[in-house]
Write a structure and sequence with these properties.
Layout lengths: L1 H22 L14 E4 L4 E4 L4 E9 L2 H12 L9 E5 L8 E6 L4 H13 L8 E4 L1 H18 L12 H17 L17 H18 L3 H12 L11 E4 L8 E5 L2 E5 L2 E2 L4 E2 H13 L24 H18 L4 H9 L7 H29 L8 H9 L7
Antiparallel strand pairs: 1-2, 3-5, 3-6, 4-5, 7-9, 8-9, 10-11
Length: 404
C-alpha cells in the first residue's frame, strides 16, 4: 500500500511540474518600438515632426517613363504646386510603380497630411500616401529629378521621322493617354460624362493617327497639337450653339429656323477632332474628288461614298481631319500657322491664337517624344556618350528596358 501512494505522489509531482512548465507566467522580452516622431506645442497647434527626416507625399506612380515625365511636368505647373518641390524619381524596388511623382510636404505630420489630402481632393494626387525620408533619400530624389529634366529638355533630340513606327506609336499612345487623363472634364460633373481614353483606345487612335499622317503627308506632331487643342482626344460634342444660314436644307440638316428659302441650321462639332457638320460635308466632297489610292489605308479609316452624319465611325473622323488639314496646307502653300488657324477658323479668317496653341503643343510633343526615343536608344546602347547617359544608367538598374 505504501508503494502505491509513493507511486501516486510521483505521478502528481510530474503532472504539477508539467502544468507549471506550460502555464507559469514567464518574462517575454519585446523590442522597444522605434517611434521617431516627436510632439511639440506651438502657440497655434500641436506639431508632430521627426528630427532629421523630411515628409514627402506621393502624387502618382507610373510604369512608363514618358508618361511619368509628362505627368510630372503637368503637376509641377499647377497653381497649387508651383511653390512646392515636386520631384520625379525612379523606384529602386521590385514591387510598385517604377516611377514616382513626389511632393515635399511641411515637416509637420498634421499639416503635411492635411495638405496632401487637399491635393487629392483637387485631383492633383492619386491617393493620400506619405513617408518620412532621410536627407540622403531626399538628395537622391532631387538628383533623379534633375536628370529627368536635363534629359527631356535636351535640344539634341531625335526627329519624329527618325523613330520607328512601332516605337512612335508607343509614345503617341502615352501622349494621348496623358492629355485625356489630365482634362478636368473627366472628373468634373458636366452634362456629358467623360472618361479618359483607355490604353486600348489610345493605342488604336495612335495607330490611326500615324496611318492617316503618313497617307496625307502630315507631320505627326501637328496632328497631336490639333487633337490636344480641340478636345484633348476626348469624344464630346462641341459648338452646340453654333448655327449658320444656308440657301436650302439638306436631308440630314438640323433646321432651327426658316425664313423664305433660307434655313438656319445647327452646325455643331463631332468627335475628338471637333469637325463641324458643314466641314464634314466639305471633307466628303474633297474625298470624292481625291485621286489618292485609299486602299492603302486600313478599311476602318476609309470614308464611305455617301456621307451619313448620324452614323459616322470615329475612325473615319480621323481620316476627314487629315484630309481637311492636307487641303488647308496645300491652300496656304505649306504655311502651317495659316493652315492650322483656318482649321479652327476659316480660310478668310484663320484663328492665329489657336494656331499658336497648336504649335506650342506640337513643339512640346516633338521634344518629349524625341528625347524619350533617344533615352531608349541609350539604354539599348549604353556606350554612347551624351548628357543623357547617367539617366540611362539609372533606368538600366531597374532591370527592364526604359520603353517597350
Amino acid at each position: 500500500m505504501r508503494v502505491f501512494w509513493l507511486l501516486v505522489t510521483e505521478i502528481l509531482l510530474v503532472l504539477a511540474s508539467a502544468f507549471a512548465y506550460y502555464y507559469w507566467p514567464r518574462h517575454l522580452p519585446l523590442p522597444k518600438p522605434q517611434i521617431g516622431e516627436k510632439m511639440a506645442y506651438t502657440e497655434e497647434h500641436l506639431v508632430i515632426l521627426w528630427p532629421e527626416r523630411y515628409l514627402i507625399g506621393t502624387l502618382a506612380e507610373c510604369e512608363e517613363a514618358t508618361y511619368a515625365y509628362l505627368l510630372f511636368d503637368y503637376l509641377r505647373a499647377q497653381k497649387r504646386l508651383t511653390s512646392k518641390q515636386v520631384m520625379l524619381t525612379v523606384a529602386h524596388r521590385p514591387s510598385g510603380g517604377r516611377y514616382r511623382v513626389l511632393v515635399r510636404l511641411p515637416d509637420d505630420l498634421l499639416s503635411g497630411v492635411s495638405e496632401l489630402a487637399q491635393l487629392k481632393a483637387d485631383h492633383l494626387a492619386s491617393r493620400v500616401e506619405y513617408a518620412w525620408i532621410t536627407s540622403s533619400e531626399l538628395s537622391q530624389a532631387r538628383q533623379d529629378t534633375s536628370l529627368f529634366l536635363s534629359a527631356y529638355n535636351d535640344l539634341n533630340f531625335a526627329s519624329l521621322s527618325q523613330i520607328s513606327s512601332a516605337e512612335l506609336q508607343f509614345y503617341v499612345r502615352q501622349f494621348i493617354g496623358f492629355k485625356s487623363a489630365t482634362d478636368p472634364r473627366t472628373w468634373k460633373k458636366t452634362a456629358f460624362a467623360l472618361s479618359p481614353v483607355s490604353v486600348e483606345e489610345a493605342d488604336r487612335l495612335a495607330t490611326d493617327i500615324l496611318a492617316v499622317a503618313e497617307f496625307y503627308g502630315i507631320p505627326v506632331d501637328l496632328f497631336l497639337g490639333i487633337g490636344a487643342m480641340e478636345n484633348n482626344f476626348l469624344s464630346a460634342p462641341g459648338d452646340l450653339n453654333n448655327a449658320l444660314w444656308k440657301p436650302r436644307a439638306q436631308w440630314d440638316d438640323i433646321v432651327l429656323q426658316q425664313k423664305g428659302h433660307q434655313v438656319w441650321i445647327l452646325n455643331s462639332s463631332l468627335g475628338i477632332w471637333q469637325i463641324t457638320r458643314q466641314s464634314l460635308r466639305h471633307a466628303q466632297q474633297l474625298f470624292l474628288a481625291d485621286q489618292r489610292d485609299y486602299s492603302k489605308l486600313p478599311q476602318r479609316l476609309r470614308p464611305a461614298q455617301k456621307l451619313d452624319l448620324e452614323n459616322l465611325p470615329p475612325e473615319v473622323l480621323t481620316t476627314y481631319a487629315g484630309l481637311l488639314l492636307r487641303d488647308l496646307l496645300d491652300h496656304f502653300a505649306g504655311n502651317v500657322m495659316m493652315a492650322t488657324g483656318a482649321y479652327n477658323g476659316t480660310m478668310r479668317h484663320p484663328n492665329l491664337r489657336y494656331a499658336a496653341g497648336v504649335e506650342m503643343v506640337a513643339r512640346y510633343a516633338r521634344r518629349v517624344i524625341g528625347n524619350a526615343a533617344e533615352l531608349s536608344r541609350l539604354v539599348a546602347s549604353p556606350s554612347t556618350m551624351t548628357q543623357k547617359n547617367e539617366l540611362a544608367e539609372v533606368h538600366a538598374e531597374v532591370a527592364v528596358p526604359l520603353e517597350q
